[in-house]
Amino acid sequence: MTARALTRMYDEALRPTGLKVTQLSLLAAIDRGLTGSISALADMLALERTTLTRNLRLLGDAGLIAPRAGGGRAVAHELTDAGRAALARATPLWRKAQDAIETGMGSGAWLEARDSLRALRRVARAQSTPQEASREAPRETSLEMRNVVAERSARTTARR
């Protein structure tokens, strides 16, 4: 129930952009160049491939991402100009929602909750498959988008 409540809160905050928090996570991950394939992106974001493929199709149909050339058979994506603009519009809205959570919980409680969620995710992945247990790549969830968005905001501010 907590995950659904948070997802609804973020989705509501992002409503003016037309993006869902899962789509924002995808745009941010693609923008950072964190993955070279759909499988790697699905693993990193802990999404089922079908869910990821559906969201990638929606972002592509909206003109926010495009396939990136190269890399053989693996399909990777990159943001279009419209995708970068959408990410830039969504970032402050996400940040405001995230700040509300952190302020509402208090800094210490927020950090403890974040760390506990990371530990829970590691345990769940370890129980899922041996391959997932051995992965060391960083994982971003909607609650951990903080670093992704902060880096994006810093780059955007530096460009101005």
Automatic annotation (TrEMBL):
Q: Which Gene3D superfamilies match?
A: Winged helix-like DNA-binding domain superfamily/Winged helix DNA-binding domain
Q: Where is the HTH marR-type domain?
A: 1-125
List where Basic and acidic residues composition bias occurs.
133-143
Any stretches that span the bilayer, and where are they? Answer: none
By its UniProt entry, which PROSITE patterns does this protein fall under? Answer: HTH_MARR_2
Full protein name: MarR family winged helix-turn-helix transcriptional regulator
List the source organism. Camelimonas fluminis
**Which segments carry the region annotation Disordered?**
124-160
> Coiled-coil region(s) at which residues?
none
Xref: SUPFAM superfamilies: Winged helix' DNA-binding domain
Q: Which InterPro entries does its entry note? A: HTH_MarR-typ, WH-like_DNA-bd_sf, WH_DNA-bd_sf
